[in-house]
Amino acid sequence: MSEADTKLYTPTPEQAQGAYVAGMEAYQALVAEAEADYEGYWGRLAKELISWKQPFTQVLDSSNAPFFKWFADGKLNASYNCLDRNVEGGKGDKTAIIFEADGGEVTKVTYSELLDRTCRLANALKAQGVQKGDRVVIYIAMSIDGVVAMQACARIGATHSVVFGGFSAQSLRDRIEDTGAKLIITADHQVRGGKQLPLKGIVDEALALGGCDSVAKVLVVKRSGAGIAMTEGRDVWMDDALAGQDNVCEPEWVEAEHPLFLLYTSGSTGKPKGVQHSTGGYLLHAALTTKWTFDLKDSDVFWCTADIGWVTGHTYITYGPLALGGTEIVFEGVPTYPDAGRFWKMIQDHKVSIFYTAPTAIRSLIKAAESNEAVHPKSYDLSSLRILGSVGEPINPAAWEWYHQHVGGGRCPIVDTFWQTETGGHMITPLPGATPLVPGSCTLPFPGIQAAVVDETGKEVPWGQGGILVVKKPWPSMIRTIWGDPERFKKSYYPEDFKGQLYLAGDGAIRDEKTGYFTITGRIDDVLNVSGHRMGTMEIESALVSCTELVAEAAVVGRPDETTGEAICAFVVLKRPRPTGDEAKAIAKQLRDHIAKEIGPIAKPKDIRFGDNLPKTRSGKIMRRLLRSVAKNEAVTQDTSTLENPAILDQLGQAY
Ligand code: WTA
């Protein structure tokens, strides 16, 4: 990528002028400030953006690296920072959340109301026996209740762990067991795309699978009102739990390092890992990135379309925008219901000014708009928009251009934000009033973040040469550990190959030869990114081989997909002769259903191919890089001399 063959979009003087970070010089000044005095820089921002009950005296404690501590002797409360201080600051009557339900009903809550609801639930949680340090699992759809549940946990110092409503009973069970949660907050149902789907029923199933003895109570929000089973002594309707609870609840002032939440995410090996985040450092970066990357002002209407079950929903729905006293949209439904114009209609109706979504959504809406003018953005008034954002996966230049032209009317900067569950907030991203944009590049590190591209030995590679993405210094919102497995934390993120000195993101990257701009080239480990959802190939393989009556062996790889970014491709050896035709189709369906049950529908493979065997080395190792070529229907050009059974490649290639 060079300036000659890519378009550069430079912020207009008007865009730069009013922005928090106004122009490249302002950006460079912040970068220089952080370089000159790293701790001074973060300490200054932590004082400016966060209200501390007890001020910190030390910014960074590296004495037990890589278990870094930030602002460790400071005390604060995340919910106080998101709610009380806005009410105290005169924003009590300001709309905090505009909630739009799947069917289109709109509910608004002000900061005062949100504080009231949070306090009542906080008191209810205490009445149910939840105390500081306890874990609470939240399994609920997009709703004000979901945000309130997270805020209420934060208020009393309970650590929340939100599980995405698309995960199966088995996945939910695993997470409940790993957290040792005392209480679960859920709803009777969720409503998506006009369909009512169970939530409480899945919680029941998960608990029935066993291993969740820590759970004493289940609080159930009434969403559909349709009948569900309630277990006496364990299950409590939310309305009953809230009845008579006071709307005042003194926040629990916690140490900055107190775990605000655990969020499970996929890695290369084993079960999903519980990424542990802190209160102080996390909240600082949530607020700071919302302020600078989205340039969030008092008059803005901010809409992040992510689910609160993912990290994007944590940082850019529950914490960042509220910490800044902003107004935001929370949307229950899906982008294609009642039609693929839903996003555009909502932007028009609510006068959304900042819109943050995933490339997969954009790509699928492009397809819909191209075949039906009525759902094309041009059929809506999107003039309220001023900034667009992208997250979760690389955005291809064609989708970028369409987003820019048709959604942003050619005038809105697109912030392509690179980050991860583990990083807590944006790491590499343009700032809308400063950074000249190049489609397909997440441009430059957020001020204070020291990203680099290195080789296998940890040495920085020259610009223009691809390598491994790392972060050279700890930063406030970084993952603190993997819940219950500090050794895995060290191994995964601060590997010995880099002498434990560099944070390993797990992505490949390349910097532009002239500008130094970063482009993410994709995961370098066995993690897939399907529609912006992270999944480990090993998890899917385990789910397949757990179908013991059918499956002897399985290998899962990713292949590029026009809409979902990557698609899951599974190669399966059955315990019976290789099926073909209709029989193969029927077994493939059975396996997909099995995976949906084990993990969730998002993990269903797009392709399932059956073989008599898998390509293996003489020592019996599956050669996945060959399978990646086969999955793409590419001729295998790699060296196959170590392959035990070369003929298998032809069979798997034809099996499609
Ligand atoms: C990928 C989501 C390219 C990347 C916030 C990362 C991206 C993984 C981008 C984290 C982007 C996220 N450009 N790739 N702008 N944003 N990724 O933990 O592979 O669900 O490692 O966090 O998504 O996914 P996670």
Set out the fold topology.
Layout: H1 13-17, H2 24-36, H3 38-49, E1 60-61, E2 69-70, E3 75-76, H4 78-91, E4 95-100, E5 106-110, H5 111-127, E6 135-139, H6 144-156, E7 159-162, H7 169-179, E8 183-187, E9 189-192, E10 195-198, H8 200-208, E11 217-221, E12 235-237, H9 238-242, E13 254-255, E14 261-265, E15 273-277, H10 280-293, E16 301-304, H11 311-323, E17 327-331, H12 342-350, E18 354-357, H13 359-371, E19 387-391, H14 397-407, E20 414-417, E21 451-454, E22 467-471, E23 481-482, H15 486-493, E24 503-511, E25 518-523, E26 527-530, E27 533-536, H16 537-545, E28 551-561, E29 565-574, H17 581-598, E30 607-610, H18 624-631, H19 647-654
Parallel strand pairs: 4-17, 6-7, 6-8, 8-11, 11-12, 16-17, 16-18, 18-19, 19-20, 29-30
Antiparallel strand pairs: 1-2, 3-13, 4-5, 9-10, 14-15, 15-23, 21-22, 22-24, 24-25, 26-27, 28-29
Helix pairs in contact: 2-3, 4-5, 4-6, 4-11, 5-6, 7-8, 10-11, 13-14
The structure holds 5'-O-[(S)-ethoxy(hydroxy)phosphoryl]adenosine.
Residues 265, 310-312, 391-394, 416-421, 442, 505-507, 520, 523, 529, 534 line the site of 5'-O-[(S)-ethoxy(hydroxy)phosphoryl]adenosine.
